[in-house]
User: Which sequence fits this backbone?
């Protein structure tokens, strides 16, 4: 079996594609998998590091606010379609799976025109443009949130799967991460992160309440600042006389997000689709602060999906203040019953079998085609 994974731009599109590819490779060890991404995306580093071959096409996003600036993007899109067509002809895949991002659209389009079986996975509650436009070429549209289904036309194609998460999250109960990370049994562990690049508004609100949080002697803080905010974060801690190691720990980035998430009692985060899926996979209560600077305001809808089910508190950035953030933390810290209800609701939303469900549908499609 030969499979093309089309994805790119951000980790939210890339990591689900890798999780699906990993599942296919475990179930079909003899399969060949090729990733197609964008030349300017994060996939250039992430995909090869995970042991997969990557080919890149020259594609970029459209400026929806200043349409007159899109001439170059349109030319690049037409060129990208030609590049995708040549790659597909050379690799001759049995199927193509697109998980969104700039590269996904041209590859799915060319797969559909060539009669290659195509599938889509949409991570967000509000689908991206690439996946909405490519729906016509797909045999199945896998969605992480049931709410996203209303934005697709062919309801018979929809399968609610959740987001594929890394294997480390599925093995959450096998290791006592609290003990490994030095969290005492009676401590309240708080994890704060704003994505791989960090979130300035969230960081600044946290800095403003550091002294109040540090005064809670049974509170332990894990703060993932984002690489570009790391020096600023350490300086902010130092200015308040708070060590950035020990009970309050500052990290630029961590490869062990699953460990810190499993060790936490409460998570404060942006509301990217992958972040929400990982939080619910760990069954953690959360305060979700969606970024307003994303296409279609999709992080708001991701957060609302969790909040509507009682798994999270939704705090929009326009309403974010140090006082409101501190109130949310201390309220959940003191109200164990509420925290437990939110954790239970989160766990009920968490999907650990998304990659399995996607694989079974793909395998069934191959059997129907006699492949």
Assistant:
């Amino acid at each position: 079996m030969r499979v093309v994974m089309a994805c790119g731009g951000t980790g939210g599109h890339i990591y689900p594609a890798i999780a699906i590819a990993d599942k296919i490779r475990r179930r079909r060890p003899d399969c060949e998998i090729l990733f197609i991404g964008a030349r300017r995306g994060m996939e250039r580093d992430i995909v090869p590091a995970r042991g997969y071959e990557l080919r890149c096409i020259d594609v970029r996003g459209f400026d929806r606010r200043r349409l007159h600036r899109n001439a170059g993007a349109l030319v690049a899109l037409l060129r990208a379609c030609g590049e995708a067509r040549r790659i597909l002809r050379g690799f001759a895949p049995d199927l193509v799976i697109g998980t969104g991002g700039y590269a996904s659209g041209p590859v799915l389009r060319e797969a559909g025109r060539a009669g290659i079986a195509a599938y889509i996975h949409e991570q967000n509650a509000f689908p991206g443009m690439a996946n909405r436009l490519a729906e016509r070429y797909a045999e199945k549209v896998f969605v992480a949130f049931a709410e996203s289904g209303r934005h697709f036309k062919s309801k018979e194609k929809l399968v609610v799967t959740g987001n594929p998460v890394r294997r480390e999250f599925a093995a959450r109960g096998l290791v006592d991460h609290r003990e490994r990370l030095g969290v005492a049994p009676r401590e309240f562990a708080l994890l704060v992160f704003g994505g791989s690049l960090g979130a300035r508004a969230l960081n600044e609100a946290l800095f403003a309440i550091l002294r109040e949080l540090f005064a809670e002697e049974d509170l332990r803080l894990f703060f993932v600042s984002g690489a570009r905010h790391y020096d600023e974060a350490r300086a902010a801690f130092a200015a308040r006389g708070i060590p950035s190691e020990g009970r309050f720990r500052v990290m630029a980035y961590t490869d062990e997000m699953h460990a810190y998430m499993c060790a936490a009692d409460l998570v404060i985060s942006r509301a990217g689709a992958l972040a929400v899926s990982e939080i619910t996979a760990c069954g953690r209560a959360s305060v979700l602060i969606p970024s307003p600077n994303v296409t279609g305001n999709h992080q708001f809808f991701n957060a609302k999906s969790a909040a509507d089910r009682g798994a999270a508190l939704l705090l929009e950035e326009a309403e974010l203040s140090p006082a409101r953030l501190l109130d949310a933390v201390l309220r959940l810290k003191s109200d164990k019953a509420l925290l437990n209800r939110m954790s239970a609701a989160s766990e009920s939303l968490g999907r650990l079998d998304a990659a399995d469900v996607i694989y079974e549908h793909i395998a069934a499609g191959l059997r129907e085609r006699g492949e």
Observations:
- The mean pLDDT is 91.
